[in-house]
Amino acid sequence: MKKPTFLLLLLTILFCNSSFSQFQNDDKLTIKSPREVRAGSNFQITFIIQKNQYHGNVRLQIEIPQGFTVTAKSNDNSIFRFEDQRAIFQWTNLPSVQDDDIKVSLQVSSDQSMLGYSVFRPSIVEIINGEAIRNDFTAHAIMITEPDKSASELKKSNAKTNYSFDEIQKEGLCCIRQVPFDNDGEIIVNILVSKGQNTNYGKVQEKVPYGYIASNIDSKNGIFVFNQTQNLVKYMWMNMPTDEQFIISYKLTPTNNVRKEQAFVIQGVFYYTADNQTKSVNIQERRIELTQE
């Protein structure tokens, strides 16, 4: 399998000026964070809830990508917890009238093997008359760049990026995408599904950049579907492969409709069933080479 040729030239379009960004979500939630960070570094994300938008029992929840760990830098009188890759700030009695915006911050640590976009998904749940009302906000993407290492350290680190089943066991149940790479004008996408003991229904769904045609390389006996209108790639299994870990692959062929100004970003989710419920984990992009043993 060819070594990955990273698509960093396409990725840098969104990050051509300041290294700090501020994103506004429908006038209720502002997110401040670096535009890009180096793999293995620590950084801070701040969430600002506009004053008087919520009251009573309120929960701010952020889905944290695999490969990151977080602690509360500031909590603004909330109760904080981090579990199942979710950072949660909980207020049991938020005043109905607030003099100031509510501001909380996360201290984030990243794994050195990461590269490309990582997506943080915030939502706010408010209890109104006994009913939980959820407001999902725009997903927040941060680009992870090469770690800040010397040439010798990078060479040593890169030598360890070849995939082995044992090295990924520490991730537990997860789904990891190798950084896509160019193969004679087509983009190859390899995905490791680490499903553990779950053998029932499963689905991998990825939203790919506009203007590309996706075709299957290896589905591991799953159903492959590409919806060109929605730019969605889907793999579905009524019964997943018996192996605890397996690799699926597809390729993206560019058309004349590819938008030169767009960043090459793929966002994906792995769905599975456990305890008679459908659950999901976000697909993480890592600087590793996925090869069959």
Sketch the major β-sheet: 7 strands, mixed
Shape by Cα distribution: globular
For the secondary structure, the number of strands is: 23
Output the number of helix runs: 3
The chain-level mean pLDDT equals 81
Distance between the termini: 12 Å
Strand % is over 45%
The Rg value, from CA coordinates, equals 20 Å
List SSEs in N-to-C order.
HEEEEEEEEEEEEHHEEEEEEEEEEE
Written overview of the protein:
- The chain has helices at 8-11, 151-158, 165-168, and strands at residues 20-25, 29-34, 36-38, 42-49, 56-63, 68-74, 79-83, 86-94, 102-110, 116-128, 131-136, 140-145, 174-178, 181-183, 186-194, 202-207, 212-218, 223-227, 232-237, 245-254, 267-274, 277-282, 284-286.
- It starts with 7 loop residues before the first helix and ends in a 7-residue tail after the last strand.
- It has 293 residues and is mainly beta.
- A hairpin with a 4-residue loop joins strand 18 (223-227) and strand 19.
- Strands 3, 5, 7, 8, 10, 11 and 12 form a seven-stranded mixed β-sheet that branches.
- Residues 1-25 and 157-163 have low confidence and may be disordered.
- It contains three helices and 23 strands.
Spell out the key features of this protein.
mainly beta, 293 residues, globular, six-stranded mixed sheet
Please sum up the structure shown.
This protein has helices spanning 8-11, 151-158, 165-168, and strands at residues 20-25, 29-34, 36-38, 42-49, 56-63, 68-74, 79-83, 86-94, 102-110, 116-128, 131-136, 140-145, 174-178, 181-183, 186-194, 202-207, 212-218, 223-227, 232-237, 245-254, 267-274, 277-282, 284-286.
